[in-house]
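>> received
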Amino acid sequence: FVAVGSFIRRYGSYIEEGKPLPGYTEITLKDDDRNDPLITKEGLVDLNILTAEEYDEIVRQNLENAKIIRDILEEKGLKLYDIKLEYGRRKENGEIILIDEVSGGNMRAYKDGKYIEPLELSKYLGI
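>> returned
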């Protein structure tokens, strides 16, 4: 992952745009009225939204899923800068799962230092 987008808007005074952020995961609440605010692990636990173990599982899955997507893009000569994936609970058993689609609209990909628009990205991927 790379420091771009909302990360730079929040923390640009402390980091250069484009700086690698290996293993970085942010969690936000899905709340349109509050612009999907960031929340910490402790906040999620204290509000009984997640257990500490569920938080760790989301981070694990997020890094694993992002790596798979990054590797696929790299095979096509593209570089993944960032991605937003949504997770939720399976109704039947409460298992934490990826509930979001993976598309050009939820990631930033670059080719030769140039941002690839989401619709153009599908051409590179042959879909």
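>> Strands lie at 79-83, 87-89, 96-98, 107-111, 114-116.
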